[in-house]
Specification:
Elements lengths: L6 H9 L7 H13 L6 H13 L14 H18 L9 H21 L6 H27 L12 H18 L7 H22 L2 H17 L6 H21 L3 H15 L8 H4 L1 H18 L10 H10 L16 H31 L5 H20 L9 H16 L16 H5 L13 H8 L1
Helix pairs in contact: 2-3, 2-6, 4-5, 4-15, 4-17, 5-17, 6-7, 6-8, 7-8, 7-9, 7-16, 8-10, 9-16, 13-14, 13-15, 15-16, 16-17
Amino acid sequence: MNRKPYEPIDAVVKGARLLGVSDWRAVGGLTLLMSSILVVPTPVWLGGTTAAALLGSMHRRAHRSNARPALAAFIVAAGLLVFSAIAPFLVVPATGYGGLLLVRLSVIPLTACAFWFSDRDRHTVSALWFGVTVGACASGLFAIVETVVLGNARASGLVGNAISFGDLALLFGALSLALHGLVHLPSRLTVTASATAAACGVLASTMSGSRGGWVAFPVMVFGVARLHRGWLTPTRLVGVGASLLVVVASATWMSGGMPMNRASASFVNASEYASTTPAGDAAASSEGARIEAWRSAASAFRQHPATGVGWGNLQAEFRADVAAGLRNPRIGTFDHAHNQILGAAANGGLLGLSTMIAIFAVPGWYFRRSQRSDDPRERTLGTIGLMVVASFAIFGLTEAIFESLVPVTCFAVLVSALASQLGGASVHTVPRSPSTIDEWLGTPTQNEPHVAGGAQAINRRVR
């Protein structure tokens, strides 16, 4: 196919149209939205992205022919989550921190509604690829500056939270690799950019010492490998593995061995933790304190199963347990449970627990369903969406991801953008309980096109 000389540049500009706004506004808004979220101070970032959203095409309504059931279901689930945060305040006194949590949780349905009222076009996927690619590359460079030049022990970005910084940088790099096959740009450009983004994401994650992201890393690897299984020959697998080891070793060396020390400490502290000695050293460690917080959150849920203690009131429960000698004093400084599901149960009771599970399960079900679609593009997006939902769910095992602005916003944008691309395409009749490894991996049959291995070619045919 003959390309116009300016077509790559034009494609980048069009790819930046996230909410269907004019090009220059979209480029600025998108850059603030995804590529700078990890390195720009939160007030500046929030003001810029809010302005970009308000300048969008919010006046346009979704037409019946443009139905998006996955996005609609996600909006309902997010609205119920916000309601679950409001409901306890009817019987439990509200706190200032509880109001702040309510605002952060409200980001999810508001973001989803922004995508609902915007145009659905395929430039959204290009915009996501552009944003996560630049964001991952920026986070890697920022991590080097922060640790090597400034001498900080861990890279945390201007977000100020090393956990969120490392988790999201790693996910951004994986998403860049996963999305590049759907971007209408020369493959040499997208492959090179995505490989660089993935390396920078791994670098930033390693130098942040964020172990929760490392737990989710196999899920990301599985998702990317599934999408590109046709390209991953044994020789290339060896090359990818060797490159990954070089990046991790380099990051560990630049960090003075901190990542390896934190990884080994995790196993030692967790194995030495003794629930009967809350004053012990192991209970005061990062891992031990998390276990202590989980136990207190579970106890709070058992005592208040209907309403919970009220969003924002969990720290008072921690301090009460510390005063009673039941828990290590370190958790008295915690304002969340370091586990999203347990925190939702303790804060919001059964309603909070069920809606928190739904916020992952509802989009996950639609993404899983889209993997059986007749549309190869939707099958690819379904795999990417599952990777996003599963990664955030794993992040939430050791951190309250929805109680911080940056991760909750990233979750809202990524899930909303991907769900907005899923329509009403017909679905294959595939067994719901795959019995072979080929079914789990989605290996194409003779009559089914290979989505991942030939993503670039399929993308051009679809467009």
